[in-house]
């Protein structure tokens, strides 16, 4: 008995000693990590072209993008969603949105099917104001479009599914499959989703009334139609159509021209920035440089960098992407740049243009409206945040006076920090999703 007690005390003493050593070890590791974090210097992506000195840093680009009258853009999209305005009024033209419903109409084979093939599938086209929702995808505790739509569809599910949801103590909701998930703040004019049920008494107008009654003024059903059972909003789509509205400042409006080379050349000819940057790097030592990214806290931003850009130049940069199948992994976010599994990063750009336009302005309008730049992109697919990064990078490259193939060269970059941070989501809108071959006549910009 005494021997067991002695062994127990010895074991407890060993355990306490090891625990103390482990605690000291953790403190040492934590101290080392803190010191390393303080000594690290992150350097911006090393652009090797002639206008690298004139190119904005990540923080400069972020400030340039967000310091805008975004409320006017949000109000404009809200009016479009509610049918008070159309996108065509941006340019004083009337461009009709295509209608490809004939390609997904109900199959003639329906009467010959039985069992699971007897289900009825509906194609639902909805329009919503992105500023009123936390994105499309349903998330706990957030006000999302998917949650509202599926809650509205709950009354149309069949009895078998309703009983199953009840047994699992889940809310009575339908399942909506969408063409593409939008982020928080991103609006949509013709977002496409589908819903199927085995009930035969459900009519398209019933679904429309149910969804419209949930969030009036924020979400509106454009149309509901019965389609083929093989229709899938995402996999059946052949192209996606996006529009980005970027408000212009008074200074930019006054200085708009096809080239702003003079300002860029004046900056590049001034060697103070490069001398200051090189001197700093010599002092810190290259052993502390990682990933070729400069920290925005280093205070090396030059006050005389270009402060405006040319819309015409943005248009020239974007046109270089048209008709090409390219990997846009450098323009994506929240996805792995290099991966062996998952969908590819190649996208085919059908249409990429930029032009000036006007939207109604809530302050000091005088009937003229606010000057904006509209970027229109149509591709077979888009990666996460790809449109917003592409817009921000195009503006940055145009301001820096980069060559027309600057965006193409960035495709081969080795780090995503070569591209600009994503532009604000408030300016982005999903215009339409197509299920027929792309027709350039349906675009807003020619």
From TrEMBL:
UniProt keyword terms in alphabetical order: Isomerase, tRNA processing
One annotated GO molecular function: tRNA pseudouridine(38-40) synthase activity
Coiled coil stretches, renumbered: none
Family recorded in the similarity comment: Belongs to the tRNA pseudouridine synthase TruA family.
Source organism of the structure: Theobroma cacao
UniProt entry tagged with the keyword tRNA processing: yes
GO terms, biological process: pseudouridine synthesis; tRNA processing
Keyword Nuclease: no
Gene3D superfamilies: Pseudouridine synthase I, catalytic domain, C-terminal subdomain, Pseudouridine synthase I, catalytic domain, N-terminal subdomain
Residue ranges of domain Pseudouridine synthase I TruA alpha/beta in the record: 370-435
SUPFAM superfamilies recorded: Pseudouridine synthase
Protein name (Swiss-Prot/TrEMBL): tRNA pseudouridine synthase
EC number per UniProt: 5.4.99.12
Catalytic activity field: uridine(38/39/40) in tRNA = pseudouridine(38/39/40) in tRNA
InterPro entries: PsdUridine_synth_cat_dom_sf, PsdUridine_synth_TruA, PsdUridine_synth_TruA_a/b_dom, PsdUridine_synth_TruA_C, TruA/RsuA/RluB/E/F_N
Pfam families (UniProt xref): PseudoU_synth_1 (PF01416)
């Amino acid at each position: 008995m005494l021997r067991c007690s002695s062994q127990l005390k010895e074991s407890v003493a060993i355990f306490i000693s090891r625990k103390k050593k482990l605690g000291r070890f953790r403190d040492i590791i934590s101290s080392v990590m803190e010191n390393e974090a303080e000594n690290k210097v992150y350097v911006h992506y090393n652009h090797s072209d002639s206008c690298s000195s004139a190119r904005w840093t990540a923080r400069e680009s972020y400030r340039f993008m967000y310091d805008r009258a975004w409320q006017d853009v949000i109000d404009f999209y809200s009016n479009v969603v509610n049918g008070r305005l159309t996108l065509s009024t941006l340019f004083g033209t009337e461009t009709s949105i295509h209608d490809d419903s004939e390609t997904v109409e109900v199959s003639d084979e329906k009467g010959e099917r039985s069992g699971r093939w007897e289900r009825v599938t509906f194609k639902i086209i909805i329009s919503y104001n992105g500023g009123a929702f936390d994105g499309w995808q349903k998330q706990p505790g957030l006000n999302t479009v998917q949650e509202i739509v599926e809650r509205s569809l709950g009354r149309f599910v069949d009895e078998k599914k309703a009983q199953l949801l009840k047994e699992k103590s889940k809310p009575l909701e339908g399942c909506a499959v969408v063409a593409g998930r939008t982020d928080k703040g991103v609006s949509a004019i013709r977002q496409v989703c589908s819903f199927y049920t085995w009930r035969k008494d459900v009519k398209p107008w019933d679904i429309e009334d149910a969804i419209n009654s949930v969030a009036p003024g924020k979400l509106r059903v454009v149309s509901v139609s019965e389609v083929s059972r093989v229709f899938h909003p995402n996999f059946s789509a052949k192209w996606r159509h996006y529009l980005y509205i970027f408000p212009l400042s008074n200074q930019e409006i006054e200085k708009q021209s096809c080239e702003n080379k003079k300002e860029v050349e004046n900056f590049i000819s001034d060697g103070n920035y490069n001398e200051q940057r090189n001197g700093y790097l010599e002092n810190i030592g290259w052993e502390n440089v990682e990933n070729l990214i400069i920290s925005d806290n280093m205070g090396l931003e030059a006050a005389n960098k270009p402060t405006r850009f040319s819309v015409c130049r943005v248009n020239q940069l974007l046109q270089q992407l048209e008709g090409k199948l390219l990997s846009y992994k450098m323009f994506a976010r929240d996805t792995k740049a290099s991966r062996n599994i998952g969908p590819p990063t190649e996208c085919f750009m059908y249409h990429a243009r930029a032009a000036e336009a006007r939207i109604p302005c809530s302050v000091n309008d005088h009937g003229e409206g606010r000057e904006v730049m509209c970027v229109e992109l149509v591709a077979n697919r888009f990666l996460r945040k790809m449109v917003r990064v592409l817009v921000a990078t195009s503006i940055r490259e145009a301001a820096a006076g980069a060559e027309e193939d600057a965006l193409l060269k960035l495709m081969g970059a080795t780090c995503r920090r070569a591209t600009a941070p994503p532009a604000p989501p408030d300016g982005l809108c999903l215009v339409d999703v197509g299920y027929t071959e792309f027709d350039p006549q349906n675009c807003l910009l020619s």
